[in-house]
Amino acid sequence: METTFILNLSYLIGVLTFVFGLRLLGSPDTARKGNMLAAFGMTFSVLVTLFIPMDDAPNNYLWIFTGLMIGGLIGWRTAIKVKMTDMPQLVSILNGLGGACAALLATTELLPYFQGTLEMSNVQLAIGIFALLIGLVSFSGSLLAYGKLQGLIKDSQVKLPKHGIINLVMLFTVLGLGIVLSFFSGPSTMFFIFIGITLIYGFSFVAPIGGADMPVVISLLNSMTGLSAAAAGFIYQSQLMIVGGILVGAAGTILTILMCQAMNRSLLNVIIGGFGSAGGAAIGSDSDGKTAKTISVTDMAIQLFYSQSVVFVPGYGLAVAQAQKTVKELEDLLDKNGVDVKYAIHPVAGRMPGHMNVLLAEANVPYPKLLDMDEANDILPNTDVVVVVGANDVVNPAAEDSPGSSIYGMPVLQVWKAKNVIVLKRSMSPGYAGIQNPLFFNDKTKMLFGDAKHTLSELTKEVKTL
Amino acid sequence: MEQFIAVFNENLFFIYLLIFTIILGFEVISKVPTILHTPLMSGANAISGVVLIGAILLIRTAGSDEYLRLILGLLGIILGTINIVGGFKVTDRMLDMFKKKAK
After folding, report:
1. Do B47 and A244 make contact, defined as CB atoms within 8 angstroms?
2. List of chain B residues whose C-beta atoms are within 8 Å of the C-beta of residue A101
3. How many Å separate Cα A202 from the centre of its chain?
4. Which residues of A are catalytic?
5. A150: closest CA of chain B, how far (Å)
6. A53–B contact, CB cutoff 8 A
7. Which of A129, A195, A258, B69 is geometrically suited to a Cys-Cys bond with B62, CB 3.0 to 4.6 A?
């Protein structure tokens, strides 16, 4: 009786640390404390689960401690070593492991039933199957997402013709099998076939999604891992697992919705296929007969140095060129001359939600200088110079004034409202969406071609001479 | 229908827990600002490692000769621990970089 009380009380404390930990993540000032609090609650709950006396339990501590040691060591080393640019990959793989863990638990609990050695109610069975399904899809899907982000697998290698239809068929097969197993049971062979097909479905589900859609997929997989953890919590009647899992599910769901809104696309549209299949033909009429103006490094340095306010708009190209620190160096020089420097960050600027903010924070940019889209759009009309670095679609005015464009309706940074715009870009090639950007031909806009990092360090040198 | 009602009545506590947690989760997480979305995600990842608790219970109650359960449970413990330790540590590393003023 007393041990149950201690266990329940500890889990209650654990739940509270999760909720308040996430609450503290609401501000950069308190976020670190919040994370520590949740980590403390987790450690505490795990310790209590480990050592609470149980009647007639074989305990098998050797097995447990071996697992804890191996897992802890791998986790710690990975977390210390990972580069910030590789965060999307790490989050994907961790996510996949969480899904795999939930799926393993569900398999272990369900297997005796399908082998006929254990009785289970339909509800228990259905929840177990649900945890297994979501966990498996999250696992194999996250593995593929990891492979894509790491550059091990190219989109074209895994994308099949009519992939949307294939996925739909597989989804119905998986759901159908799951329902049959939950409500009418079946032989253990069918259970294993279900596991196999679900794993393949996870791969196939992520296969056609790539490039700039990765933030949506990562968020979605994150929410699925949470749900599978919550469902596994029902199997063990553990409130801590249920609450923890649902909180994660909510986080993933909110981020999925935000990412979809940031691209003005429905989740279904993202899942079925990219812009290519959505018929986003090149609309380049704005550029007809107009040529983009260019600017020299020296002129740009002078213009930046003598303006009052500068806003950088970093895109994924900045991270690819590893130019975050060079931008920061430039910012410091301008800052010394009294130029007000800010960064305008579009929600889908990186490969996962909030990625660009982390990269700039790593380069020591103070977070009050990082503006989200709404804040940035408020100050852009009063900004002297906007510097677009490696971003394209997120600053395309066609999203607002060209109803025929495939990105029409997508919320964008209104950089064309600023007094001057300078675009640093490799070439005139269109962005991910494959559409021409009228911004480049705007009278206020000047282009500076070249590798972002190289251009920025040249600029820094020039500014130093002023 | 009768079965559904029975299930509903039996699990009423869990249904309440489910609904209120969903509402609470959305309330708390929608307050997290855009600049912290990556740490939110990795932190949430760490929390989803809570399945470790299930894996520990699984092994503690498994018979010493039930090798299938022990091996699957061991795998579960390894994966869950990677998730928890890696997730919280990397989140801490990231949050440490968010400073109000530059050095």
Report:
1. yes
2. 49, 51-52, 55, 76, 79-80, 83
3. 17
4. 393
5. 17
6. no
7. B69
Q: In A65-125, which ranges are E strands?
A: none
Give phi and psi for A30, each to the nearest 5: -105, -5
Q: What is the pLDDT of residue A162?
A: 81
- A126 at B interface, C-beta within 8 A: no
Which parts of chain A have pLDDT scores under 50? 274-287
pLDDT tens digits, residue range B43-73? Answer: 999 999 999 999 999 999 998 899 999 999 9
Average pLDDT, chain A: 90
Task: Give the per-residue pLDDT at B103.
Answer: 57
The pTM assigned to this predicted structure is: 0.90
Tell me: pLDDT of B77 over 50: yes
**Mind telling me how many Å the CA of A285 is from chain B's nearest CA?**
35
Among A46, A54, A353, select the one facing B41 at the smallest CB separation: A353
**C-beta atoms of B35 and A35 within 8 A:** no
Average pLDDT over residues B20-40: 93
CB contact under 8 A, A101 and B52: yes
